[in-house]
Design goal:
By secondary structure, the protein is an alpha+beta fold. The protein has ten helices and 17 strands. The relative contact order is 0.08.
């Protein structure tokens, strides 16, 4: 993933904010800057732009809905949550994330007019924004551990289950008291607290009073402010993108065609490669069929040395048997089935295998083979033996120069 510009909008004045460029690992490329949103256009050039909005303006929760299709989830959310919301659902904007393994769907709800106001400000500034998240989505998700971010004017909190809350700093004690009074089972809860420098000392005093009720308390002062931490978090584990429904981005085909041209070229190349692969596979199968045919012809010639041209070994064998006055019924079919299995086993063993002789009497076939090594002979035996109708046994395996001369005994069980 390329570098991204993360902009955090000021809660008091949406026309200004603070931004930082981070790399694919979530590490800041340069120091964070502040100012009018129009000043962020320069670092935004050539980078994906993500906006973080004040969490106190966004309700983040989760809900179970009986559908999985994203469009249908958006359609159902207003009615599924109507009883939980004080405002008219017609004035609200709903966004949903991906359902988790339990079927819970993460949801974000905020006033439509508020999102429109923020959008007007970044569009007026000339920013092309690809995603918008509540700033609380940038909090680390640590299973079994709650995460707290405290700044001078606001607090963001993610509990052990990943549920998010946002309050003003004056309500910090009430938020933590409610959390501590939940059922945490037999163990006391764990808490990681990120503190802004301008309020770290006073907040730490308040947190220390809670230590007896906590299993662990890990406090960390954010010397560079909260933005780098939130930026890394929202990229590593994105929450609910607010740009959905009527606020979803509309792509301009002509504008983005240069980027799509590369994708189209890659797709065409993929089709060509797939076609070439299919052709190569067909040729491989044709060669295998030719090899099986040759193996069958070779076996036939060892049985009937006087044979000249053998185009159809099965038909030729039936003709010979009829000429000898034998039946083409069960015994002939048994021989043909055995020969077919042997031919397939020899083909699968590789081109280094040579059939020296074939002898077939009373349902028992004996083969004399020249193979590159004992492993090949063993593989042929196992392949034939895998046919439930046959039992194959290695009679001998003797070295002959750099090859192995082996004998196989194959008995039909039918």
């Amino acid at each position: 993933m390329a570098e991204q510009l993360i902009i955090r909008i000021s809660p008091g004045d949406p026309s200004v904010g603070r931004w930082v460029v981070i790399d694919a690992e979530g590490i800041p490329v340069s120091a964070a800057e502040s100012g009018p949103l129009s000043d962020a256009c320069a670092p935004a050039a050539g980078r994906r732009v993500v906006v973080l909005v004040p969490a106190t303006e966004v309700l983040r929760t989760s809900i179970k809905v009986p559908v999985k299709n994203p469009k249908k989830i958006l359609q159902l959310l207003p009615f599924a949550m109507e009883d939980q919301l004080a405002e008219d659902i017609g004035d609200l904007h709903f966004a949903a994330g991906r359902p988790d393994s339990t079927g819970n769907v993460p949801v974000a709800v905020l006033r439509r007019a508020q999102l429109e106001e923020w959008r007007d400000h970044w569009q007026t500034a000339g920013l092309d924004v690809q995603a918008v998240y509540a700033e609380s989505d940038g909090l680390d998700h640590m299973p079994g551990t709650a995460v707290l971010l405290v700044e001078a004017d606001r607090v963001c909190f993610r509990d052990e289950a990943g549920e998010l809350s946002s309050v003003d700093t004056d309500s910090l004690n009430a938020l933590l008291t409610l959390w501590l009074h939940r059922d945490h089972g037999d163990a006391r809860p764990h808490l990681v607290a990120y503190l802004a420098p301008d309020c770290a000392q006073s907040v730490q005093v308040e947190l220390d009073t809670l230590r007896p009720e906590l299993e662990t308390l890990d406090s960390r002062v954010l010397a560079d402010g909260a933005l780098p931490r939130l930026a890394a978090g929202v990229i590593a584990n994105p929450g609910v993108n607010l740009l959905q429904g009527n606020f979803a981005r509309r792509s301009d085909f002509a504008k983005y065609w240069p980027a799509w041209r590369l994708a189209a070229s890659l797709l065409i190349a993929l089709v060509i490669v797939a076609t070439a692969t299919k052709i190569a596979e067909n040729r491989r199968l044709e060669k295998r069929a030719e090899y099986l045919q040759a193996a069958a012809q070779q076996a036939f010639r060892y049985l009937f040395p006087d044979a000249r041209e053998v185009r159809d070994p099965r038909a030729a064998l039936n003709s010979r048997l009829r000429a000898l006055g034998q039946t083409t019924g069960k015994s002939a079919n048994g021989f043909l089935d055995t020969l077919e299995t042997v031919s397939r086993a020899l083909s699968d063993s590789g081109t280094g295998t040579q059939l020296e002789s074939v002898d077939y009497r009373k349902g028992i076939m004996e083969l004399r083979l020249r193979v590159p090594d004992v492993e090949t002979l063993d593989r042929i035996q196992k392949t034939i033996d895998s046919d439930a109708r046959l039992t194959a046994e290695i009679q001998s395996a003797n070295a002959d120069d750099d090859q192995i001369l082996g004998r196989l005994r194959i008995e039909s069980g039918a």
